[in-house]
Amino acid sequence: MKHAYQKAKEAYCKNEVPVGAVLVHKNKIIASDHNQMRQNVSSIDHAELLCAYVGIKILKSPYLNECDLYVTLEPCPMCAATLKHLRIRNIYFGAYDFKGGGIVHGPRLFDSNNSHTEYYGGYMENQCSTILQDFFKSKRD
Amino acid sequence: MKHAYQKAKEAYCKNEVPVGAVLVHKNKIIASDHNQMRQNVSSIDHAELLCAYVGIKILKSPYLNECDLYVTLEPCPMCAATLKHLRIRNIYFGAYDFKGGGIVHGPRLFDSNNSHTEYYGGYMENQCSTILQDFFKSKRD
């Protein structure tokens, strides 16, 4: 999660929404990224999706069932549903997203009997949450 | 929807799950595709996502708010959530997906007050549904 948080800090410095993610396969980081919505002119280039796309290319596999994802913010429904399709093994997230989350909030996409994924929230929650609050506060000021 | 159905037929012939989609911008088709999960070794390469990715590249826009999507099957939660992020204007779908749908089934992702999208189901429903049934029946036989 420290590595994912570093990615979020990079995003902050680039004026991107500061969310970072890291994809791990067999104890090795195979992808890491941060939100790229501004850079890529795309509303869907979230950190965890970018990592997932790289993961399936690197592993040449339709699934990420031997992978774990670390991400600084609770994934939204789009990312959560994509990670569900990819049958990712574990998701560890930092801050909870009360408005936009899709795992422990909103559609709670893994709480069904067709899920292959375990999830765990609240890792480095304070830091992961504070960097987002600071970012959006700086936008309003 | 006829064009989307043609794409589904192409998919059938290529041994891909027969779902087709067409993205329309200002009365012009700007993208059309079918599921490519087998070809691309990816569990997430659904027809509507592939069209959406092409759409944002072509339009150089983070959103598809002036676009309409025609797709032969009710989008799943992953696709529906992605289309919601992209603020697509209208979704017209063919067959209903009682088990895997995300629009009028499952999380019903557009039935919230933060949706920019209208949706309409049941276009060419019989044909769009039959081609899927035939495909999966041929797999079981």
Task: Describe this protein with a few key phrases.
5 strands, globular, homodimer, alpha/beta, 141 residues, five-stranded mixed beta sheet, 4 helices
Which structural category fits the helices and strands of chain A? alpha/beta
- Strand count of chain A: 5
What percent of residues of chain A are in strands? 15-25%
What series of H and E elements makes up the topology of chain A? HEEHEHEEH
Oligomeric grouping of the chains: homodimer
Low-pLDDT regions of chain A = none
- Annotation field: number of helices of chain A: 4
Overall shape of chain A: it is globular
Itemize the secondary structure elements and their pairings:
Two copies of one chain form a homodimer.
Chain A: H1 2-13, E1 20-25, E2 28-34, H2 47-59, E3 67-73, H3 77-85, E4 90-95, E5 118-120, H4 125-140
Parallel strand pairs in A: 3-4, 4-5
Antiparallel strand pairs in A: 1-2, 1-3
Helix pairs in contact in A: 1-4
Structure description:
The structure is a homodimer of 141-residue chains. Chain A is built from four helices and five strands. Chain A has helices spanning 2-13, 47-59, 77-85, 125-140; strands at 20-25, 28-34, 67-73, 90-95, 118-120. A five-stranded mixed sheet of chain A has the order 2-1-3-4-5.
Summarize the structure.
Two copies of one chain form a homodimer. Chain A has helices at residues 2-13, 47-59, 77-85, 125-140; strands at residues 20-25, 28-34, 67-73, 90-95, 118-120.
